[in-house]
Specification:
Length: 611
């Protein structure tokens, strides 16, 4: 019980009744006043103690901005892109990436000019014809044969290089892109020669063999369906389409009962079955979850298996992996691992997981979540083969409007992703934080807080969703004690303090802006872009920044290709007035390369056995 609050309540009653009696007012009024204050107390305890939502006064106000200013901001992003790309061209092309402090280059993939190929579609969208033309020389000249003792990393090459070629083809129809994509897709195909059809880690392009352990991470074995399906579509080759469908087929056949219908982090590539119980949407898992929905959307929403898998995975996440932090009520998603005491949340929150709000918003935007019967689905029946506890969880979800619920989850998570930037002295977001949990504070599952919120009359915004201020307390604690205090009040400590120029947060801000039309997502993106300009810019490009949680951030000598392919692309699209890539016509792969939504023709369905 909260004593000060209670005493305050009683004082109000005492003072009020003596005042009334003084004026000769009956005992009925006193009883009424007493009942009223009890009611207020009940409200108080429901509102503050049990769920404790922030008041709407906690809103960040942004001054309105004219359309011209937004357009100008998109051009500032284009200037940033040119700065980064010109540095790459001058000091690194045709190697993979620029090292932006030493003005040198690095071939951390295959030496196939990955930054140039990864950047093609962004240049096309930004209207950068000269840069595009020069980058195309790499598309013409790259020799996909590597020295005999090296291997091509399958996953990274598919999402960056193959994805880059395919989306540039989709935007331009230039046939050389289709031809090179076909060659690359074919040269990578030995990876699929496994008992399950899940790809191995790498390919030796000289020997035509696959290479790597027989246990693979979820993201690496299942983030290629979109690329191979679209490649099959534009080449008319059945073998590409067959490759695209192996992951879906394996997932449908996998036994996931003990994982609540979610896909664990490691898989046996021989048997095609899950190998551990680590459930996560972060590193080593992330894009596999993303492709479940996106494969469904890209192939014109015909493949119901993918839709069912998406609903199961999101339901498990909403019910089991989403929590509210104790003081600021920040909504976050974490992972759960097998400890001696059973599967427990780590309360880590990764920057990589910040794609999830965008994915949930995309799902809420495109799927009939509040009317699944329309597509022949019975939502609660999806839990029929799960444990009774999971089944109850589905019923809890179904007692809300599922579309609202997904969108609230998206908004709350995206806000926390943004706040992890805005909370820091640099304005840049750390790679991993650990949320306050345990001790005297019980951990609060988001869905429990949602049920409390509903029971107490839906007062204020849903838990974790109302607008919140960045942290204004001591941002740079000097010793362990101060760190402990900051942790306790800010609700998290920074576990990995580098901003790796990653896209996930601005990606989600972009999708939320397009889906909701709420300009606050744009403003938040602008905050982040300004921090990147201020902290990460070097004379020849942009650098990863370490120690974002201090006033002495440290640049590191790396500029990943995804900074150009994803981070700057999403920022540009966020500020552009025109919706250049409508979300119902295009689907972004996990490297932000847009592929068009397409339908298989009757002949293709027959020839390939697809839906
Ligand atoms: C890298 O190149 C930029 C642009 O030419 C230059 O300003 C900077 O001094 C160079 N840095 C180093 C370490 O050479
Ligand atoms: C590509 O590289 C391989 C291995 O170095 C070489 O044998 C082959 O001739 C090259 N192909 C072309 C078209 O240059
Ligand atoms: C993978 O599954 C196969 C076939 O069931 C089994 O023989 C093998 O031991 C498993 N490998 C691992 C690493 O679990
Ligand atoms: C949906 O499935 C559940 C079983 O999980 C069943 O009780 C319910 O009647 C079904 N609803 C409809 C409309 O078929």
């Amino acid at each position: 019980m909260n004593f000060p609050a209670k005493l305050l309540g009683n004082n109000v009653v005492t003072k009020a009744s003596s005042l009334l009696r003084h004026r000769g007012i009956s005992i009925r009024h006193v009883v009424f006043a007493f009942a009223l204050s009890i009611a207020l107390l009940v409200l108080y305890f429901n509102y503050f103690r049990r769920t404790g939502y922030s008041f709407p006064i906690d809103v960040m106000h942004y001054a309105p901005v004219t359309p011209e200013v937004w357009t100008d901001r998109s051009f500032q992003v284009r200037d940033a892109f040119l700065h980064a790309y010109h540095g790459y061209e001058r000091f690194a092309f045709p190697n993979d990436e620029l090292r932006p402090l030493s003005n040198t280059s690095i071939n951390n993939f295959n030496g196939w000019a990955v930054t140039a190929v990864d950047s093609l579609d962004t240049m096309h969208m930004m209207g950068l014809e000269q840069e595009y033309k020069r980058a195309m020389t790499a598309v013409h000249d790259t020799n996909f044969t590597l020295p005999a003792n090296t291997r091509v990393p399958f996953f990274e090459t598919v999402i960056r290089q193959l994805g880059g070629l395919l989306s540039a083809y989709a935007l331009t129809n230039d046939d050389i892109l289709r031809i090179r994509a076909d060659q690359l897709g074919t040269i990578l195909a030995p990876a699929f020669r496994t008992a399950s059809g899940f790809p191995k880690y790498g390919v030796n392009t000289v020997r035509g063999t696959s290479d790597g352990p027989l246990v693979g991470s979820l993201a690496e074995i299942a983030s290629y369906q979109m690329e191979y399906a679209y490649l099959g579509k534009i080449t008319g080759k059945k073998e590409h389409v067959d490759r695209a469908t192996t992951a879906t087929r394996n997932f449908v056949n996998a036994d996931l009962r003990q994982h609540g219908g979610m896909y664990p982090m490691f898989w046996n590539i021989s048997s095609g079955q899950a190998k551990d119980a680590h459930l996560s949407v972060g590193a080593a898992s992330d894009s596999a979850h993303e492709y479940i929905l996106k494969q469904y959307l890209m192939t014109a929403r015909k493949d119901k298996a993918n839709l069912e898998m998406y609903l199961r995975f999101t339901s498990h996440v909403l019910n089991n992996l989403m929590y509210i932090s104790p003081n600021r009520h920040l909504l976050y998603v974490t992972d759960s691992k097998l400890y001696r005491t059973g599967n427990r949340p780590t309360h880590n929150f990764e920057h990589l997981s910040c794609f999830l709000p965008g994915l949930l918003a995309l799902g809420a935007h495109t799927l009939p979540l509040n009317n699944l019967e329309e597509v022949g689905l019975n939502f609660t029946a999806l839990a029929d083969d799960l444990l009774p506890k999971q089944k109850l969880g589905y019923e809890a979800l179904a007692s809300f409007d599922l579309k609202d619920l997904h969108l609230w989850a998206a908004e709350g998570l995206a806000q926390t992703c943004y706040l992890t930037y805005a909370d820091q002295p640099t304005g840049l977001g750390p790679d991993i934080i650990n949320m306050l949990s345990g001790g005297s504070r019980p951990e609060i599952l988001w869905m429990d807080a949602m049920q409390d919120w509903r029971t107490s009359g839906r007062i204020g915004p849903p838990p974790g969703v109302g607008d919140k201020h960045p942290w204004v307390g001591d941002r740079t604690p000097r010793n362990a004690r101060e760190r402990e205090m900051a942790y306790a009040m800010r609700d998290y400590y920074v576990k990995n303090a580098d901003y790796q120029l990653r896209p996930e947060t601005v990606e989600s801000l972009y999708i939320l802006y397009r889906v909701t039309g709420d300009v606050k997502w744009r403003h938040r993106g602008w905050d982040i872009f300004q921090a990147i300009e201020k902290e990460a810019k070097t004379p020849s490009g942009y650098a990863i920044i370490d120690k974002v949680d201090t006033y002495n951030p440290q640049p590191l000598d790396a500029m990943p290709s995804f900074f150009l392919a994803e981070t700057l692309k999403y920022l540009y699209l966020l500020f552009q007035q025109d919706d250049l890539v409508p979300l119902d016509k295009w689907v972004f792969n996990t490297e932000a390369h847009p592929f068009p939504v397409f339908e298989w023709t009757e002949e293709e369905k027959e020839a390939y056995g697809v839906l």
